[in-house]
Amino acid sequence: MRDRTLWLLLSAACLSLLLVPGVSGFDFSKLENSVKEHTLDNGLKIIVMERHEAPVASFLTYANVGSVDDPKGYTGIAHMFEHMAFKGTTTLGTKDIDRELELMMVEDSIFLLLRAERNKGLLADSVRINELEAAFDEACDAAYELVVPNAFGETVDREGGHFLNAGTGKDQTVYFFSLPSNKVEFWMAMESERFLNPILREMYRERNVVAEERRMVVESRPFGRLMEEFLALSYKAHPYGISIIGHMSDIQYYSLDAAKAQFEKYYGPSNLTVAIVGDVKPKEVFKLAEKYWGRIAPRPAPERIATVEPEQSGERRMEMEDPSQPLYLVGWHIPEITHPDRPAIDALLDYLGQGRTSLLYKNLVKEKKIATRVGSLPTGYVGDKYPTMAIVYTMPSQGHDNYECEVEILAETEKLKEELIADEEVDKIKARAKADFIAGGGFMGGLNSNLGLAIQLAGYQNYWGNWREMFKELDRINAVTPEDIQRVAKQYFTKKNRVVVMMNTVES
Known about the structure:
The chain is an alpha+beta fold. The protein is built from 19 helices and eleven strands. It has three domains: 33-90 and 150-295, 2-Layer Sandwich (Cytochrome Bc1 Complex, Chain A, domain 1), CATH 3.30.830; 95-146; 316-505, CATH 3.30.830.10. Helix content is 45%, strand content 16%. Strands 1-2-6-3-5-4 form a six-stranded mixed beta sheet, with helices on both faces. A five-stranded mixed beta sheet has the order 7-11-8-10-9, with helices on both faces. Helix 4 (97-118) packs antiparallel against helix 5. The two termini are 33 Å apart.
């Protein structure tokens, strides 16, 4: 995402556009019947929901590609391409496209020579590297002279656009903004063009932006550093073990060819879903989609990741020493989002660590005062398309440590295997889950706004293969029983299936 974590922004956007008061205010049959879909000959799927409460609409392009699909040596390239999708086209963002393309080829050719020399390691010629670095910087500056910065965003702003942004997750990359409802054709032209004729201008400059983003989000934050270690320890085979932003050495290794290959493989129309929600007419939308999106040549959709993470043979544990405050993470391997056990696992994590009324908060923070913070992360934090992780975290209070907190966390988790949660507590968990689903507390946004609905429709289409599964979510939540929660606790929350990382404080 250009500014902040994807799902935090989406949730905020959803909550700021509340149009429906609560669960009881929803007529789900009416909502479902207002949805129409159409698939172009090139494979692009378009989902449209009519909502005529206000003369606005939200537009979402969902690319079924995330960091899980990054090739070896180019980790973070999905996130990098998200940045590049805002750089314009052959007609937008340039003063002279022909000359600019020539200069981009020059900068790329010099970078490839520089990269090859650096890759020689101890045999590299330092004088040659210095010469190539100087030539590369000069070539980048020359190409940039022909760039019109932020032309895409400024054009959207002039047409009344809001919430222009994008975000890369483990499983997907989404692009979205909202417009007045009389700007449907404008959106069709702008959005289709950047995936028909993307120009990867400023890529080498933008690599530095991404590298700085990594320093800020991962390297300079104790939680970011510890989470990266947690992921690497949790996955020895599956690419969920690599952070979305990628390794620093890979970021510095990106070339134009790598970014183009990413686009060609994953941005074919059969790997894209468009979701539009608001004051629009489906027939008009589909006609305009044929005109603009139909220009994109069909390409086969890429296959799912074939790698399956092997079952753990025992607990994995790692301890870091750092001058920062102590921090503790424990996680257990759990199934993907479409698995029938997921609603019960979500309920268990809610009871265990969601909010100030949760079991762990009451025990560790309120009563024993051995932690300043404790909680469970959303189950989609690591990813959802493939088997993922359930994660609990805590920050010990002054005078206490990670080991003391761990004893309490694991003891409370074990109790869930032996004692059924009371029916009234399970009813509260379900009520919270349904409220989150409606109001946008979930990681894909809620149903209280045009944007939230677009996010959900596209998400369910890609995770479940059918957007109609969205309207079955409340049934899945309602079906959870205390016995289900106890069963998943016994099945998944075991020592053998456990991963523990902690940051212990040392003097700097």
